[in-house]
Amino acid sequence: MEEKKTKAQLIKELNELQSEVDRLNKSTSVSDIQCDFESGKDKYRMLVESIPHGIEEIDTNGIITFVNSSFYKMLGYNEGELIGKRIWDIVETLEERESLPKYLKTLIEEQPSPTPYISNNRRKDGTIIDIQVDWNYKRDEEGSVIGFISIITDITERKQAETQLLREKEKAQNYLDIAGVMFVVIEKEQNVTLINKKGCEILGYEENEILGKNWFDNFLPQGERARVKDVFNEMMVGNVKPVEFFENRILTKKGEERVLSWHNTVLKDEDGEIVCTLGSGEDITVRKKAEEALQRSNSELEDIVAQRTAELTKTNMLLYEEIGERKKKEEVLRRYEQIISSSSEHMSLIDANYVYLAVNDEYPVAHNKKKEDIVGHSMLELFGAELFEKAIKKRFDKCLSGKKVKYQDWFDFPHLGHRYMDVSYNPAYDENNTVFGVVVVCLDITQRKEAEDALHKAKEEADSASLAKGEFLANMSHEMRTPLSTVIGMTDLLSETELTTEQKEYLGILKKGEDNLLNLISDVLDLSKIEAGHLDLAKDSFSLGDILLKAIDVVAYGARKNGLRLIYNIAENVPDNLIGDPQRLQQIIINILGNAIKFTNEGDVAIQVQKKALDGKAGKKNTVELVFSVQDTGIGIPGEKLETIFESFSQGDSSTTRKFGGTGLGTTISRRLVEAMDGSIWVESEEGRGSTFYFTASFELAELKPAREDELSFNIEGSSVLVVEDSLTYGAMLKDELESNGAVVTIVTSGADGLNVLKKVKESGTPFKLILMDHFMPEMDGLKMNEEMKCKKLLTSDTEIFLMSAYGNIDEILDPTELDIRGCVKKPARISDILKVLAAARAKTEVAHTEAEVPAAIPLNLLLVDDSEDLRMLVQRLLRATNYKVDTAENGAQAVEKYRNGNYDLLLMDMQMPVMDGFEATREIRKLEKEKSDKAIPIIAFTAHAFRDELQKCLDAGCTYFIPKPVKKEVLLKILHDYAIGEGADMSYRVERRHRFRTKSVEIEGS
Length: 1007
Hints:
By secondary structure, the chain is an alpha/beta fold. Helices cover 43% and strands 22% of the residues. The protein contains 30 helices and 33 strands. The strands form 6 sheets. Strands 16, 17, 18, 19, 20, 21, 22 and 33 form an 8-stranded mixed sheet that branches. A 5-stranded antiparallel sheet has the order 2-1-5-4-3. The radius of gyration is 55 Å and the shape is elongated.
């Protein structure tokens, strides 16, 4: 760096001196010229004599006109001895003597920018030195070239060092060239500065085709470049240490990809800066292929025998790691023999010519031969030509092509007899990854096969029995429900006639007996359906709070009759919107609550619902598992009966059976339903201290749908409400629900407290807009409080009063208008139901509990098809008061014929009939419609089946809707009316959408 700087300064000063000379040439004063010239000459002499480089001036003929002392000293001449000589007289080589005049002439004529050149000059003593000559033009005042000024540098030591370095480099290159791996040096700019002979051989290029080229862009596949560049760049900036055992693919001149394993290091300059990387790469392409072949072989051998998979894989890997490319086929065979001999199954190795190479000890025993009678012999000898060609050769040849073959079949062995074998043919690979034979593994699975056959036969017998049981169940359901339909229907018709008091009493007993009989039939059929495998659970969305209250509503009368208090509690974290079978869940709750009430003489019956700690069963997402518990204060269950309480027709003991009656099917059915819901049921009890029944059930979570605007039909936001309720928990629930709808609520627990609150409110001038009073309360009930409020004039005309009662529909007993109240609310009630009752009262309509009357019927021509004469007469009598015209048929064949010749608006079709059943008749009628291009006539199925698949069978046959037996008058009239006005009936399983219902704890008192 210092040398270049000095030359630059020198050239600058020479140019400045040249400018000075030009100035003198332009001067007009002779004396001034003389003075300045002498001054410039001295200055020039001092300059050229002060520098360590040689200075030489020559004219255009190459004659030396000036040389400084440094140049004389450099060449060993005395001062003045070089003046007048030509520059090519002092060079060493003939080539230079001939080329220098030509070069000088080119400079003068073409005047290119002079470039330094290296020359061998002979010193005076005959020794040779290497010099570097830097030219500069010397011009006259017109700019013409009149000579040259040269700066000469002695570079002898540098040339010697370069020569030595070259020799060392050639020596190192020789070392690198004899190496068996690739060596490559890559500089920071990613170009190759060195590569050895092995590297050129691997890449397929000449050395000059590689040096100076970008390593990554020219010699790596496209997919490898970014990854390897990142590693290189991180090494060059020192972020990562040199990488050992780094594998990547390179691209040869022929476009082939080879895999190299690299060991890298970095080289630094004298300042410690990283300037390049040196990598040694071993070509492992063949080894990688061998490894891939090994993996392929391992994959094939893993399936030879399930019990030997781990050992066989490990052995096979050791096999190919040890032998690589150098091992011979004999070593491979020895390894296979070791594997085969260690196996406990029948195992053999057979070459491509069907000759046995190895067998284990078990193989010859099965064939009743010695090992030497098999090894070295052909499979043709062992099995015979016919069996070999028929069952073996085709599979064997397929395996020789590299495909695994597996099959099972019966074989006759001389020693073992008739055995069922699992046979697998597995390709055997040599050291070159070529299939040279087949490994045959035979597993004796005779016992498993016999067990499977027995199980299959048993399943067929069970399926046949289940089918027969299902058919019997269907017939029993039809045979029992059909006559029961007649009995119940006729009883309803009888109740509409004029009867004496005694006859009405008898009729009431008859209706009670009908209900008990229907419940008994339903329980028996439910149990039969479950045991026959016909139980199908629905997947409908429902409100848990709705189902719980509906179940309580069913058993509330029994609780009131026994003077019991029903308490229910739903934990805060229990979701209300679920997906499952709401009817079956309600059936379970009713069964357990009914039993608790039946066996409890006094006290409480409480039901509680909690959420299990962990949601989702068996890894299922979006599910919740709930725990239901029903606790009573009844007679309890003896310890020895706890295990049998859920068995069919079983109760606590014989005395309770006699005292309380019943079939004992409720708990059995509940257990089966709970199990179908992926849950379990159990009981904890102590005789004389009550019982607690528990059951769990899993449900999917349903989306919480926003309430419809028509459901929010009564707005109480901002209204002042007084709740008079002696049950603290139920009152608290009402308060929470009312406040959640925006009301301002005051709650008291007695009529007297309610009157006191009303007095204070009257004095303050802020009366209540709404009062909810319990019907039955101690000391002062709701009716008495209502009278006191009116007498003491504690109300304003804007106050609306509603009576709440747990005794059914109180408005059927009391007339709200006579009591001067707006309406009645049945307990327990959802907040949505309360709001609807309030809205109905405000609109001066009937309360929500009153059944809507069936609108007047529109004339229809009906065809009633049923094989039961009694049922046909019943339906005709039920429709006698309507203006429907009813024609009848006794079976499906008659129905088809009457439809062909008649004109009907709707068909009522029994599905189980002799001659032709309802399914076939419906299909025939649908065919006739297509032939006649008639509009499809509604066909309503009469069925005693409650199976979901049976109902679907009705739809598949072409029915439009169904009516279950026993037939109820109000249901029949409603469906016929819907069709008469053109609305039809909905076949889907609908679930009412409700407001979200939640309560911390609610008590429903029976008195």
